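Hi R.,

Here's the chain you asked about this morning:
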Amino acid sequence: ALRMAFAARTALSANTRVACRLLSVHPTKRSEALAKPGAASPKIQALVDSISQLTLLEVSELNEQLKVKLAIKDVPVAVAAPAAAAPAAAEAAAEPVAVQTSFTVKLTKVDPKSKVKAIKAVKDLVPGLNLVEAKKFVEELPQVIKKDVSKEDAEKIKAALAEAGGEVAFE
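And the predicted structure, written out as tokens:
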């Protein structure tokens, strides 16, 4: 029994050495050996089939168990993060920055001393408001003056309300 085990181990070792030599020496033979799915023994094929059905957690557990069983030490991996970060930064700089084209103008605060001016300005800026509605509008801040306006229009509205004693925010 010992002779048979030794003979099987020797044959396996010889086959492994030949396969390693083929895989490491000749690139075309390596690709041929890797391309032939039937080249593996049935035992290896059964292992490949069963391993391919494992989940990631099970593969991780298998990896740890094999490291323990075969006494394989973890090898530190050199990380090239700074070199990889440079192209990512270059790509980020190359991407166009999103520019806001439409704004929502909000009246956030009104100076109590110039409340009357602010009410008149709001009445002129918001279509359909009468004086009473404009007064309620100014008293219940913050309020949206206009939505989806261009930057130029938003600046004009801001200037008009600032002149009337109001503070404006853009969104």
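The beta strands are 103-110, 143-149, 166-170.

Let me know if you need anything else.
M.
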